[in-house]
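In response to the reviewer comment on reproducibility (Comment 2.3), we provide here a single inverse folding case reported in full, input and output, so that an independent group could reproduce the run without further information from us. The structure tokens appear first.
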């Protein structure tokens, strides 16, 4: 039988609504050329080659790091900029005290002037992408328009990008519109604006990470959390990992930690030798979209397809998995170089000779790699990457874990009594700030559910939504809080962390199965030394006691502080949250 010749529609003809939008943006930004991205390997290589020829990408040692390149961002453009990030909702209350707010018409007018002619002399790239597996009903699509080829390369790794995404967009009623331009990279003219009511994002003046890869924090979290509330699901700053115990049972955990607090490392953890028989399956390292399933459980997909991970601290001892993953086909941003033209960062073996700014390394200038230097790499390169990560229905979650970086107060792990208490535990997360965002590092701030920079609406409404989601689950995950970062008086971490964190996760899963014991405290249930497998771990009983100590006096102060914080959300705060605070406070008094 004769077959019709296989013709592919040109990309610009696949979706009328995308093409119309592109035409409007083209008129405003005046680029020299327009390129519609098809997401092919050939396209990736061609764009990468162009950047190398222009000197924007540095080819690394291809013998030891094949397919690896270094990108140096503008020195003033090295992290997310929370003070320049806005939620532009019609009502200020809807954005809430947790967000910067600008009136949408005013924000639009301001951005219009900044975008006018901003792509002159440049190429406008149209980047259609799908967040989540292309065939998943949970996935959501968007199109990013950008004038940065580096952004295109990163989006190609981080999302399902190209023709197939555009074909899906053509069949759906809506898509998220993300307009991005490097502008002049002047921090005075840098803004990241979100218009959730019309599912759009406008970002100018930065080419870095979450400011510029609009599928990530802007779409999958800020706009995503808004869409999720409307549609009855949750968009969270969570990693997802599967753990198979020595009996062969596999369970999935999702964990929310603030930026640079251990999600990527936990997603790729390597079981210590003294815990034989455990297997780890990596699903996601930064974002989880959680949907109530027909079986009353919560099901998670990772909307991303790559990792934009923190480089410093990554080595064969802490995270051999990540270390091996980034040895080929990886884009490094703002790392240092060795004499052999290999990438280098603090915590890696060898010596830096060129720092992240391209200068000869001099320790008097500070760290060789920028503290927020990163690698961009396809998830499927990770040795532990799970097949189910591409499953359209996601994976069922047995436990939700919240955590922060706190040198004091928060114990190694504790379990919430129930969902409502768990929502308070999540809302109580506080953590030391890190280099992932500009500003001072090491200051403890409240970061509920690790979503302070990413929740696209009023936290009061967000907690109400969390409470509603839980009320609708007949088999809700149990909820926990962990802290890998508690320190002794000398400033040394009490817990070895990394692969050894599996001991804590194992206890968590045994609690979910109703098999592990715990001590009840006012703040929740904690493992005693006999409840958790510490075999083969060099830790004294005093240290374990310190790690799991709960000071009622210190926690009374903490709860008073949390109450004050929650009251700041006024009438939007669900009464159930204050009832939970009352309950913990009452337990602390006895
Ligand atoms: P984002 O990508 O910014 O969201 O960060 P993340 O939460 O994925 O953090 P990541 O796993 O990249 O870790 C950030 C830093 O914390 C790195 O320097 C790690 O080496 C360090 N780290 C991660 N896990 C542990 C741990 O268990 N203990 C200690 N002490 N450090 C850790
Ligand atoms: C974070 O800051 O939480 C990150 C890096 O994952 S960025 O993509 O810049 O948001
Ligand atoms: Mn993150």
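Designed residues, in position order:
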């Amino acid at each position: 039988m004769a077959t019709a010749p296989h013709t592919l529609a040109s990309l610009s003809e696949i979706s009328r609504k995308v093409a119309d939008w592109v035409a409007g943006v083209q008129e405003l930004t005046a680029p020299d050329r327009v390129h519609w991205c098809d997401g092919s390997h050939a396209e990736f290589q061609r764009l990468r080659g162009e950047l190398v020829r222009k000197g924007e990408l540095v080819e690394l040692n291809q013998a030891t790091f094949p397919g690896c390149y270094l990108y140096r961002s503008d020195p003033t453009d090295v992290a997310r900029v929370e003070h320049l990030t806005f939620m532009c909702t019609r009502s200020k209350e809807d954005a809430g005290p947790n967000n910067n707010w600008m009136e949408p018409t005013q924000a639009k007018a301001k951005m219009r002037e900044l975008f006018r002619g901003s792509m002159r002399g440049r190429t406008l790239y149209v980047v259609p992408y799908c967040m989540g597996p292309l065939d998943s009903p949970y996935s959501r699509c968007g199109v990013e328009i950008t004038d940065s080829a580096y952004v295109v390369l990163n989006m190609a790794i981080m999302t399902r990008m190209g023709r197939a995404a555009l074909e899906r967009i053509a069949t759906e009623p809506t898509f998220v519109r993300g307009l991005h331009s490097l502008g002049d990279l002047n921090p005075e003219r840098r803004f990241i604006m979100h218009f959730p009511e019309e599912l759009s994002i406008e970002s100018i003046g930065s080419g870095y990470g979450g400011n510029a890869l609009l599928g990530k924090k802007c779409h999958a979290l800020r706009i995503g959390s808004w869409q999720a509330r409307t549609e009855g699901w949750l968009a969270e700053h969570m990693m997802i990992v599967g753990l198979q115990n020595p009996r062969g049972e596999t369970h999935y955990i999702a964990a929310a930690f603030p930026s640079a607090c251990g999600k990527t490392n936990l997603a790729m953890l390597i079981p210590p030798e003294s815990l034989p028989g455990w297997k780890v399956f990596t699903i996601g390292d930064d974002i989880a979209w959680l949907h109530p399933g027909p079986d009353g459980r919560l099901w998670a997909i990772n909307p991303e397809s790559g990792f934009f991970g923190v480089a410093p601290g990554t080595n064969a001892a802490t995270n051999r998995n990540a270390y091996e993953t980034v040895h080929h086909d990886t884009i490094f941003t703002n790392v240092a170089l060795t004499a052999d033209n290999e990438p280098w960062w603090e915590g890696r073996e060898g010596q830096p000779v060129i720092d992240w700014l391209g200068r000869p390394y001099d320790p008097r200038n500070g760290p060789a790699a920028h503290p927020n230097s990163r690698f961009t790499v396809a998830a499927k390169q990770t040795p532990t990457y799970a097949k189910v990560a591409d499953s359209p229905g996601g994976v069922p979650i047995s436990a939700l874990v919240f955590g922060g970086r706190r040198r004091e107060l928060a114990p190694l792990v504790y379990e919430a009594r129930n969902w409502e208490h768990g929502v308070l535990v999540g809302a109580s997360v506080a953590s030391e700030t890190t280099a992932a965002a500009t500003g001072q590092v090491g200051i403890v701030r409240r970061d509920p559910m690790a979503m302070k920079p990413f929740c696209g609406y009023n936290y009061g409404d967000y907690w109400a939504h969390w409470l509603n989601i839980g009320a609708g689950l007949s088999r809700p995950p149990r909820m926990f809080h962990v802290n890998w970062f508690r320190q002794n008086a000398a400033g040394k971490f009490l817990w070895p962390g990394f692969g050894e964190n599996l001991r804590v996760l194992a206890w968590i899963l045994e609690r979910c199965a109703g098999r592990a014991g715990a001590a009840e405290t006012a703040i929740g249930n904690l493992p005693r030394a006999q409840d958790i497998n510490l075999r083969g771990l060099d830790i004294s009983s005093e240290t374990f006691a310190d790690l799991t100590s709960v000071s009622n006096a210190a926690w009374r102060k903490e709860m008073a502080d949390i109450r004050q914080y929650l009251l700041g959300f006024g009438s939007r705060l669900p009464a159930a949250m204050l009832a939970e605070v009352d309950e913990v406070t009452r337990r602390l008094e006895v």
